[in-house]
Amino acid sequence: MANIPAELRYTKEHEWAKLEGEIVTVGITDFAQSSLGDIVFVELPEVGDELDKDGTFGAVESIKSASDLYSPLSGEVVEVNEELVDSPDNLNSDPYGAWMIKLKVSNSSELEELLSAEDYAPLCEE
Amino acid sequence: MSRTSLYEEHVALKAKLAPFAGFEMPIQYSGVKAEVQAVRDNVGVFDVSHMGEFFVEGRDAISFVDYLITNDFQGASIGKAVYSPLCRDNGTAIDDLIAYKLEEEKVLICVNAANIEKDWNWIDSKKSGFDIELTNRSDEFSLLAIQGPKTEDSLAKLGFKNTDAEYYSAFESTWNDQPVILARTGYTGEDGFEIFGSHETIKTLWKQMMDIGVTPCGLASRDVLRLEVCYPLYGHELNDELTPLDAALKWTVKEKKEKFIGKDSLVGATSQKRLVKLSLDKGIPREGYPVLDSNDKEIGIVTSGTMSVTTGKGICLALIDRENFPENKEFKIQVRKNIINANYHTKAFVSGGHK
Question: Computed from CA positions of residues B85, B89, B92, B95, in that sequence, does the dihedral angle turn out positive or negative?
């Protein structure tokens, strides 16, 4: 059973978002890392990049396959977790600690479209 | 969707299962990385029961198989296995296979699961004039591939005979008082055996392998292992439109053979493609990614790509248009939006430890 912390928000693409004022921290969920298997490569954007909601902001790769990452919200990248580039396996061992990017939200009305833990849970049933 | 005789075992081991060539197959158990390492350093076992088994028996068994395939089968001694493409008259590949010369009048052909019906129809249509009996016994056999440097120890522990057989030898034997066919072949570059037997025999064998600590391995690690040693995979480096010459398999086309299907098209011919081995220092090449020359002109495509567990680099095989093959051997690969310089390799990424 996948771990789905109640305090976070989620997307259908299996990303999590943590809201703190106008800053949103983004990562992939426990279900996502478990489905991917051994994660061996992460491609992330650069600080200053402008992202659109649902636009790709990078990729996460297991040995077998590459999956695009989709931004849960529109905004500007203000911080990137560079540590992940050298240690992508942190995404497997600690998916909610191994954040990917922090965004400065440009359209706060989009927040309402994110899923609660309760609404996300059914998407993790195999 | 078909299941192999070991389906319940895979479920009990919590394998990730996925459809492959009409079978629900184990993709991975503990994890791809651990499974690759088990085979390179120790010993692992794959359920490859989905593969097809045809028998050719009778007075002309050997000459018939020699006529079907591009490699030399006539010249191989009894008890040897021969890898070969199976081609049409125009030289394109129907499949690649291993033919096992079990007896003077008995040959086992092992074919890719996805091609069983296509191969059967082709081979069956070519038998007139040969004194042979051809049977498709794919449904009767289960098949295990036990691979890795500790294979011989494991098989000895399990009570197998003749585990010191030569590389690429094949013979009928018994295990647990049941008939089996053993071949010192595999698809990982490591030492190992492939073991054909009845569903019951193989099920018993699988359980005993688990009991002595052989690592169960899925198709995902099998793909990494074969790609690290640059073995082609039908449907990727070879297909219905490509010839063995395109896939760097000229060594399997024996021009001196008197006759074989495809000879007129393959002997003296120049390939349309050249298969290259490329790696990236950062990033992972994937099937379908474009390959570019130093002027960023698209000259080919990645046919198989993965993260190499053994070398820690992104590796791939790619087919390059012969007419655009760069003399400077400088290649780039487009990974999503980025164009990345690739390393050109003349040897396999991993040498493997087979005998």
Answer: negative
Q: Which amino acid is at B48?
A: V
Q: Work out how many domains chain B is built from and give that number.
A: 3
> B113 and B50 in contact (C-beta within 8 Å)?
yes
- DSSP sequence for A31-46: HHHHHH-SEEEEE---
Model ipTM? 0.86
Query: What whole-number distance in Å separates Cα of residue B332 and Cα of residue B275?
Result: 15
Percentage, residues of chain B above pLDDT 90: 97
Q: How far is it, in rounded angstroms, from Cα A11 to Cα A9?
A: 7
Are residues B33 and B149 located together in one domain of the fold? yes
Q: Which residues of chain B are within 8 Å of residue A63 when distances are taken between CB atoms?
A: 32-33, 220, 224, 306-307, 309
pLDDT tens per residue across span A80-101 = 999 999 999 999 999 999 999 9
- The closest alpha carbon to A73, from A116, A122, A124, A9, belongs to A9
CATH number of the domain to which B175 belongs: 3.30.1360.120
Q: How far is A27 from chain B (nearest CA, A)?
A: 20
Q: Could you tell me which of B287, B310, B291, B311 has the C-alpha nearest to residue B300?
A: B291
* B221: nearest Cα among B42, B19, B5, B39: B39
- Asked which of B65-74, B114-123, B345-354 is least confident by mean pLDDT, the reply is B345-354
Smallest Cβ–Cβ distance between A41 and the set B16, B223, B284 belongs to B284
Residues 6 or more apart whose CB falls under 8 angstroms from that of B122 comprise B86, B88, B94
Tell me which of 3.40.50.150, 2.30.30.220, 2.40.50.100, 3.30.230.10 is the CATH number of domain A25-106: 2.40.50.100
Regarding beta strands B215-217 and B44-47, do their DSSP bridges make them parallel or antiparallel, or are they unpaired?
A: parallel
Residues B104, B218, single domain; the answer is: no
| C-beta separation of B244 from B325 below 8 A | no
Q: How far is A29 from chain B (nearest CA, A)?
A: 19
Nearest CA in chain A to B27: A64
* DSSP H helical ranges for B106-160: 116-125, 151-157
With b for 16 or more beta-carbon neighbours within 10 A and e for fewer, the A38-56 pattern comes to bbbbbbbbeeebebebeeb
State the nearest Cα–Cα gap between B102 and chain A, in angstroms. Answer: 37
Residues of B in contact with A37 (CB under 8 A): 16, 28, 31-32, 220
Residues B190 and B63 reside in one and the same domain: no
Q: Would you state the pLDDT for residue B324?
A: 98
Q: Provide the domain limits for residue B301.
A: 272-345
8 A C-beta contact, residue B319 and residue B301: yes
Tokens of B277: 């081995």
User: Is A65–B286 a contact, with Cβ atoms under 8 angstroms apart?
Assistant: yes
pLDDT digits (tens, 9 = 90+) for B99-123: 999 999 999 999 999 999 999 999 9
